[in-house]
Specification:
This protein has about 270 residues and is mainly alpha-helical. Helix content is about 70%, strand content about 0%. The chain contains 8 helices and no strands. The longest helix is centred in the middle third of the chain and has 35 residues, at about 160-195. The model is unreliable at about 1-15 (pLDDT under 50).
């Protein structure tokens, strides 16, 4: 006589034909990391195609690898398409996705989660700044010359281009990036393997996509800095249990960056 197989320790109330739930009572994500990465690559490709008309029509406006107005608009187009592809995939094949990511939380908790996320994002800024400074010092001693984080935005942006930049940094990029890196990638690994494997699995590619054409060592500083930023955003998501909090944190983090950038760019 064979004994029944007990449920996984991170699930409860499993019934055949139903989606298992985690110990906090929400549905466990049904997508795997391999599927998620595959869909993201397709979405990234579709976003690249969507940006081509913008780049072709307006022309190159980069300055030493930093993006100008054209590239900002192209990034907006790409991010919108990436988000649309991800939402279509989730809605079509993973109907529980909103409940799995806890998006949104209960109505009375939405503003509380937004406020917590925003405050946490503001706290994340100096923490990441200290880490970035430490990385620069260590690498400078290792290579024997100055190492700096490359500028991500070209100088001399027009007022209209600055408006596009605000739209990208405050409204579009936080939703697009958090949806995939924390909501999809972190969530599936976290549900199966725990926090730290999930934090690293989502933060490392998050850092990689923030590559800026520049000397290799400088580009590495920015990417490594964004890896630590991704870990911080994953912790905020873990702490509050809803993707809404990490989205709000990402917005607040970017707002501080905008204040710095728009204070320098004339």
């Amino acid at each position: 006589m064979s004994l029944p197989i007990p449920p996984r320790p991170d699930t409860s109330g499993f019934v055949f034909g139903q989606i298992p739930t985690t110990t906090d009572g929400r549905p466990r994500s049904t997508w795997g990391w391999f599927e998620a990465v595959g869909v993201y690559l397709l979405a990234f490709l579709a976003g690249g195609f969507a940006s081509i008309p913008v780049l072709a029509f307006l022309g190159d406006t980069t300055v030493n690898g930093a993006i100008g107005q054209t590239e900002i608009l192209a990034t907006i187009a790409a991010d919108v398409v990436i988000t649309a592809v991800l939402v279509f995939w989730l809605a079509r094949w993973h109907h529980e996705w909103r409940a799995a990511m806890v998006l949104p939380p209960s109505q009375e908790r939405i503003w509380r989660q937004l406020l917590y996320g925003a405050v946490a994002g503001l706290i994340l800024v100096p923490a990441v700044g200290l880490i970035s400074g430490g990385i620069e010092v260590i690498l400078r001693e290792a290579v024997g010359h100055r190492v700096t984080t490359p500028e991500q935005v070209a100088p001399g942006l027009s007022p209209l281009a600055k408006g596009y930049l605000v739209l990208l940094a405050v409204a579009i990029a936080p939703i697009s990036e958090e949806l995939f890196f924390r909501g999809v990638l972190f969530r599936t690994v976290r549900d199966r393997h725990g926090f730290w494997p999930a934090a690293l699995a989502s933060a490392i590619p998050f850092g990689l996509v923030h590559y800026v054409p520049s000397p290799a060592i400088d580009a590495f500083v920015l990417q490594l800095t964004m890896v630590f930023t991704g870990i911080g955003l994953a912790w905020i998501y873990e702490r509050r249990g809803t993707i809404l909090a990490s989205m709000a944190a990402h917005v607040a983090f970017n707002v501080v960056g905008l204040v710095v950038i728009l204070g320098i760019v004339r």
